[in-house]
Amino acid sequence: MSRRVGVWIVGAAGAVSTLTVAGAAALKRGLIAPTGLVTAQPNFEGLGLADPAELVFGGYELRDADLVASAREFAEQNGVLSSEIIKAIEPELKAVEIKKGFALNGGAAIERLGDGRDGSLAEIVAMVQKDLRDFQSKHGLDDVVVVQLASAEAYLEAPREFNYLESFVGLLHAERRELFQASTLIAYAAMEAGFPYVNFTSSQGASLGALDELSRRKAVPHCGRDGKTGETLMKTVLAPMFVARSLRVLSWEGVNLLGNRDGQILAVPENLKAKLKDKDLPLRSILNDPAAQTKVRIEYVPSFGDWKTAWDFIHFEGFLGARMQLQFTWQGCDSALAAPLVLDLVRLAELAHRRGERGFMKHTAAFWKAPYGVETHDFATQMSWLYEYAEASKSAARSRR
């Protein structure tokens, strides 16, 4: 029997969310193939994953939200998502339930997007939990997966108390507003109420010891942080090659040019800080050479829209000190790369929750720039974890029959 699964998106009218909803609707109507959807591969057949075409969507947005207008704007600016598809799926876009979201310590760039709902920290948590339960009840959903897709919050150093659930909750009840961000409060509210949480952004979200502890206590899975879709994906594929061949990387320089709203937000240094940290982490971990220079730059180019171009220059040393170079250019539609992965992660999070799993979903590490508690960033190794998880899950299901 099929399960009704809800997807509550934070940043519900953004580009990634718009393409996620549109893609699921287009799949339902048979208008597109599941290209880019990892869980559509044969490895995942028989797992009993939720049908992406049957997902029910809702969420939060700071701006005035209209998904039909967002889809048309995206199509006009980026040449992706045809007018024919938009016309066919307009009922599904209009059916998405969107409520006013929350902003807290996200930085001035986030605040300019719109005024969010306000209240004490405890009131915000209660409002989020009510919204999720109402959404579940209204649509008769078996489960709801909360997905963070909102623009990157400003970097905020977490206090050491956030490593432990008891002290985290204590600071929340003490109304220490200066310590909390919206993404973290929503993650706490979701998991405390028993709903899985997925953080596709560089915002803090559930990447805290306290919230991992909460997820284990409540038997709800979580995963994140920062979806790996383009340049960083290439780094985690190529860097292990240099290590395996004993070729010493002297310098790895990366320049990212992007438009869209994310580019606009990341043009603000305080919002850029966490993103740069997440993008550099996998490469430094794989190379494991303090002498190697690694640098990432992100520049906002408004005319690019959702298209992102990354140019990487790799200077490396081989036998007899021979110095050589490798350069590559990656150009992709950012949201079209991200949207199918969001559907993958929703399906995997719902399955993990149904199976009674808790804590960080290590098998999803291949999806992330900065996966919680994971030190191995080799893409092939991370993908092997996912395939092994799928096989183990199918074996467990067969043994229960």
Can you offer a commentary on this structure?
This protein has 401 residues and is of the alpha/beta class. The chain folds into two domains: 5-227 and 336-400, NAD(P)-binding Rossmann-like Domain (Rossmann fold); 231-334, Dihydrodipicolinate Reductase, domain 2 (2-Layer Sandwich). 44% of the residues lie in helices and 18% in strands. Strands 3-2-1-4-5-6-11 form a seven-stranded parallel sheet, sandwiched between helices. Helix 8 links the parallel strand 5 and strand 6. Helix 1 (15-28) packs across helix 2 (67-78), helix 1 (15-28) crosses helix 12 and helix 7 packs parallel to helix 8 (209-218). The longest helix is centred in the C-terminal third of the chain and has 22 residues, at 379-400. The radius of gyration is 21 Å and the shape is globular. The mean pLDDT is 95.
Question: What's a concise summary of this model?
Answer:
By secondary structure, the chain is an alpha/beta fold. The chain has 2 domains: 5-227 and 336-400, Rossmann fold, CATH 3.40.50.720; 231-334, Dihydrodipicolinate Reductase, domain 2.
Question: Count of DSSP helices?
Answer: 13
Domain module count: 2
Anisotropy-based shape:
globular
Using only CA atoms, what is the Rg?
21 Å
> What is the C-level CATH assignment of the largest domain?
Alpha Beta
Strand order of the largest sheet: 3-2-1-4-5-6-11
End-to-end Cα distance, whole Å, is 15 Å
Write the CATH homologous superfamily of the largest domain.
NAD(P)-binding Rossmann-like Domain
**CATH topology heading of the largest domain:** Rossmann fold
